[in-house]
Amino acid sequence: MTITCSKRVAVASCHDKINFGSVLQAYATQRALEELGVEVNTIDKRGLGHAISEGRNDYYLEHLFDVDLYRAKLGFVKHRIKQKLDADFGKKMAKRKSAFSSFESTHFSFTPQAASFEELGALVADYDSVVVGSDQLWLPVNIAGRYFTLSFVQPPVRKVSYSTSFGVSSLSEKYLRKTKDFLSDFSAISVREDTGADLVEKATGVRCSVVCDPTMLLARDQWASLACSSSIDVPDEPYVFCYFMGKNAWNRECAQE
Prior knowledge:
alpha/beta, Rossmann fold, six-stranded parallel sheet, 10 helices
């Protein structure tokens, strides 16, 4: 990242999801910027639910008959229902949420909350740059939501993308046009995957940089300093720790092999 000349940087990240990847990426982005010697604040997006939902709801209405889209959401819905019906599972998830909230409150330096994009635009006007990244922040539904596109940022504040992912390998012509529009006034663009660079090039005609995920910018000892003591007995012999999402049997078979 080449923004060491900036004095104040605001970060637009997905800090508020109960998801290890999202939160650790958000933390690593803030931490890596701090180590460049700039003042950094992560934008507290928790007051922007209504503003972001307006565009996202339009996207869902537009794709009302997209079976694959709603099938992808089915697991999330089942998970929420299970929390309501299974008291033990609900208790465990409440404990998990509390742990995430505690980490967020102690490890992030937040801006004040804003209730609208207009308020947020005024809030970040005092910053030199706003950095968006990482995670799957440029999914079509998030492009429609307009937050991770930095639509609220006005000149002379610079817009920068670090290691942002589209989360998809292709976009419709409509969303390619939208991508071209929102990237047109970015000062620097980098993405996390080659497919993301392909989409940026297809939308804008310019190929951007592909960089590592921000979690890879921190050294092992920096991550170790955050970790609590484990209650799990670590084996003496060499081992591999696997972290899986969902119940994909094929992943487990590959790990065993």
